[in-house]
Design a protein that fits this description.
This protein is mostly helical. It has helices spanning 15-18, 25-44, 54-65, 70-77, 81-85, 104-111, 126-137, 142-148, 167-180, 192-205, 210-216, 232-247, 251-258, 262-271; strands at residues 51-52, 101-102, 122-123, 165-166.
Length: 281
Amino acid sequence: MNTADRQPPNHNTLTCYTDYKCRLPECVERYNAWSRDRERAIADGTWQPLLDAEPIRQHLLKLHAAGITIHRVATVTGLTYKSVRSFTQHDYGNAAPRRRRCTQEVAEKLLAVTLDQHTPGYVDPIGSLRRFQALVAIGWPTIHTARRAGLHPSNRTTIFQAPKMRAATAQRIADTYDEMRHQKPARHGVSATSIKRAKQQATERRWPPPKYWDENGAIDDPAFEPLYGVTKRELIAQDANWIMRTTGLDRHATAQRLGIHKSYLDHAFREHPEYDMGVAA
């Protein structure tokens, strides 16, 4: 993504406030509005209780048997892969049990996926690419991941360049990722040199490890841009660039809106000139 077109990934959801501690006025108001709606629903008795997840589990198993993978269900419902997967499998690495209950809203979305309306189809490859990169970050060279996922080693990079990927392929990669992320590369024939080289590559390219994706749950979200390895000053420079482009404010007014001193913003732009719009006033 070009700097001129870059949009901060955290200014359109609640994670802006909760995860990134953003305090832009519009972001604070978004979070406060959500909190008010929740409290009002609880007071009115309209807050939906949790439902038994077993019927949903059986529904997902039938879909999977017919060729509609967890990845495909996540894509058509807008839910995360991890949340949908939790209905049929528990997380071996974190010892989290299989989901037993869920909200009415989630249940309705999943049960709405039927065999006559949806086919196995294709999904965005971004989640699969991020899984490959996350394994590199913990020492797994991509050639090992490709072989374990049943992909030809020579195809391990070109497969992600297409706009879509077969859902079945994405599912194999996800299953492989769930296995390999909890294994030590050194115990599976990967040399110390290869492990070091893989980790270095991930560091240089800011590829987040599995733990990062566990925390935000956005590994399959193409609209989410990871901020792993990004410093506070770079975040300030990104946000200031976005504010100045979208509002026309000068640097002084932008610093006030961000709640920082202009000298701090000047410093952020000096460290990250790619975001500096050249308006110093």
